[in-house]
Amino acid sequence: MNKVGRFGEFGGQYVPETVMNAVHELEAAYDHYKNDPDFLAELTRYYKEYAGRPSMLYYARRMTEDLGGAKIYIKREDLNHTGSHKINNVLGQALLAKRMGKKRLIAETGAGQHGVATATAAALFDMECEIYMGADDVERQSLNVYRMELLGAKVNAVQSGTNTLKDAINEAMRDWATNIDTTYYLIGSVMGPHPYPTMVRDFQKIIGEETRRQMMEAEGRLPDAVVACVGGGSNAMGMFYDFIKEPSVKLYGAEAAGEGVQSPRTAATVSLGRTGIFHGMKALFLQNDEGQIAPVYSLSAGLDYPGVGPEHSHLHQTGRAEYHAITDEEAVCAFEYLSRVEGIIPAIESAHAVALAKKLAPNMGKEQILVINLSGRGDKDVYQVARYRGVQL
Amino acid sequence: MNRIDTTFARLKEQKKKALITFITAGDGGLDTTEQLVYSMERGGADIIELGIPFSDPIAEGPTIQKASVRALENGTRLVDVFALVRRLRKNIQLPLVMMMYVNSIFGFGTQRFFALCRECGVDGVIVPDLPYEEKEELQDFADREGVYVIRLVTPASHERIRMIANGARGFLYCVSSVGVTGVRESYSTDFKEFFGAVNRSREIPAAVGFGISGPEQAKAMKHYCDGVIVGSAVVELVERHGAASPGPVETFTRSLREALDT
């Protein structure tokens, strides 16, 4: 068995023949540039001067006191340019695409954060940009749609299947296969065929590396636990990766339970899924007994995906990371909680991580440290949370 | 011997090109599918592809995507398609090939899937999201049951064609152009170059598919290879005529047959 790009049994390159040469071309380009000093220097410069890295590690004093357990720190990826961790990966891949001579970027987006980041990079590097977004997500994240259009991108509302993230990926893959010579598919998460899961993780691992350094400065030691939300899983892999080799650091992923894991309206892939092959990878998927991909649901458009990346599938299978499902209600409560207690409005996706931290921290000792990866800011979600609470804006 | 091999051997003897037609199983209900298979055989099809509806058919254009949705809304399940094939085998001997996505096999259970193929009479599978590099996912299971996993080459394959053609079984599926399935007005592919590379590499028959809309295109393409595959154009007739589609599909199939034979 070909073991390229595998995490245990997971990963691989399950894509149509038409895109195989493009996948190999990308693999070769990434293998080259990931060690190229000029490329890395340029990326570092954009991280610093354009995205605003390093992002702050903030001690959440009031939350710590309120929960009465572990000391809580928040990694402020929400303060990055464009408002989420997505920019880390996008700058890396867009620079790579440019060096590969590609003129056109396409991307899928759920909540719109990855679409906004991609549209931003396309503007910055003067590239053509087309974004695929499920029709339902276009409706629930209309602010981000307008932002993408402001940035010069064309946004395609995808009307097929469940009208959400998975369908946007299907359509982006069809575009890629059709325009294979000119187009770079800028995948937004640690998913898809190899090399994407590895490459996206590498562009996001700066989150965990900075956290380690900042934690050593603040506390002189490693955290005991890190918590991140998981849709496809890019912010979580970014936070986890540097700590995988540290057995004392527990890794927690918060996935979207939607209306609950007992309900059919859920997106809790790790809790309820099984191994499948879809969107280019062998990984955990929510599916029926004949391999039909399940329609999933979460209030959070960014976590509303029936799969999870292959490295997360592996971390789950080996027990190195633990995944818990957080309901819409718990996430909305955490959204409100962090707003009131710390004055930080989190993205509804990141609020899932906050909700899990709220459960974990009280059961940890006061001498212990927990870090929440706050992957994005919540401005985009205010309208939807208001509607969830029955408030007319 | 696999029915695909015997069919191509017979066609070669008769100096004829293979006509391969596609419908989505369960589109209009499985009873309609059964009647459509008979009508395509009467119309002169040599091999029939049954598309297994999938929730997320990433290689399909709008026509087959919609057919997939209709079939799934009808409650079409793979186990029922196998039962249909078992029924069909009482009446027809032409090769039946399933076109499907890899998770419809893996998620169903790979071993169980190929055992049912042999038992019910499915001769091959075409899996558009399983590239050469991942062929081991199915190969041993398929070999054990004598079922062919048909390999695909596309105009974007270039130097990969030789590798893919080497050891291929049944026939080589030559995708006419990059992109997804669906009827095309014209092609941007340089067919002389593409089929030049294909014909230098292959030891088995080759058939061309993706975008062949009717007799005229079938006639134009037949010189490049041993067979022509028509999918979306048939599915459009099923979409338009529903349960009454076997008649029009038979007429259409006959027009393709005549285009290939003259």
Query: Most extensive interface: pair and counts?
Result: A-B, 38 and 42 residues
Helix fraction of chain A, binned, reads 40-55%
Cα-atom radius of gyration of chain A: 19 Å
Proportion in helices of chain B = 40-55%
Nearest-integer average pLDDT of chain B: 96
Number of helices of chain B: 12
- Tell me the total number of β-strands of chain A: 15
Largest sheet of chain A, in brief, is:
6 strands, mixed
Q: What is the H/E string of chain B?
A: HEHEHHEHHEHEEHEHEHEHH
Counting DSSP E segments of at least 2 residues, the number of strands of chain B comes to 9
Number of helices of chain A: 16
Structural class of chain B: alpha/beta
Low-confidence stretches of chain A: none
Distance between the termini of chain A: 56 Å
Low-confidence stretches of chain B: none
Oligomer description = heterodimer
Q: Which outline of chain B best applies?
A: globular
- Mean pLDDT of chain A, to the nearest integer, reads 97
Strand content of chain B: 5-15%
| Sequence of strands across the biggest β-sheet of chain B | 5-4-3-2-1-9-8-7-6
Your description of this structure?
The complex is a heterodimer of chains A (393) and B (262). Chain A contains 16 helices and 15 strands. Chain A is of the alpha/beta class. The longest helix of chain A is centred in the N-terminal third of the chain and has 15 residues, at 37-51. Chain A is globular, with a radius of gyration of 19 Å. The N and C termini of chain A lie far apart (56 Å). With 262 residues, chain B is an alpha/beta fold. Chain B has twelve helices and nine strands. A nine-stranded parallel beta sheet of chain B has the order 5-4-3-2-1-9-8-7-6. The model of chain B has no long low-confidence stretch (mean pLDDT 96). The interface between A and B is large, with 38 and 42 residues.
